[in-house]
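tool_call: predict_structure(chain=1)
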Amino acid sequence: MTDRDLILASGSPRRRQLLELIGVGFTVIPADVDETPLPGEDPVTYASRAARDKAQDVATSHPGRLVLGADTVVEVDQEILGKPSSADDAVSMLRRLSGRSHLVHTALALVTDATGHEVVDSARVQFLDLTDEMIRWYVATGEPMDKAGGYAIQGLGGLLVAGVEGSPHTVVGLPVHRLPELFAAHDIDFWSRLKEL
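tool_result:
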């Protein structure tokens, strides 16, 4: 790790893979924060706050370093659909998403010392009409259990998705196309930090 490297305040393997793909130098230091939504907090506000809290949590113990926090929220009927608490909960979530569209919001927060900037990117995901057999098969794979909304579009859950309006990377959890503007808000040239691939 060098002082120039970004710190990713997330243990998500999907976010790590996307940063590696574009050649950003970084190290992973997961944040340890309470991710419970506040009473009455809307999905976008919650995602933004959670991303900021994660980045600030790690930045506190790494002064002078750039820290990237992220949070992804699935919204259906103006409600936050979190991670399933059980297989039955996953089945219920997938039935709720079946045959309709929902929103996915990913917030990014870039923090250094006392300065922080956030962006939120949203995408609309359309699900296929799911049969009980499809839902039971998918839940039995175990994949839904640690995923917001109970599915992973980049995995087997992609079989359930009819289409996406917006960036697929937003649904995965890191809208990489928003990183240049986030770095620019800190007066940093994002492109100069990329490694030669």
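agent: The chain has six helices and seven strands. Proceeding to next step.
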